[in-house]
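Researcher: Sit down with what I've pasted below and flag anything odd:
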Amino acid sequence: MSPSAQPSVVQSLTHSFLLSGDNLPECGTCQCPLTVKHILVECVDLKDVRNKHFVASYIKDLFDNIEAHKIIDFIKETHFL
């Protein structure tokens, strides 16, 4: 699976509100919108797990420089998959 395909795994969680008419989901820790970017590079609650698998400050850097299996392992460990 290519790295560019990875956001779709989390997007079902972060974008399902568009189809259901529900409110935008919010991060329980940060009280900000629960987005793919927030989960993969911003959320402070996920920092330790994220750093265990990869270090990236920008979503572009993540998908340009990090191996797909590391991103998938992070998503699995954080139960977003």
Remarks:
- The chain has one domain: 7-77.
- The chain has five helices and no strands.
- Residues 26 and 34 are 5 Å apart (CA to CA).
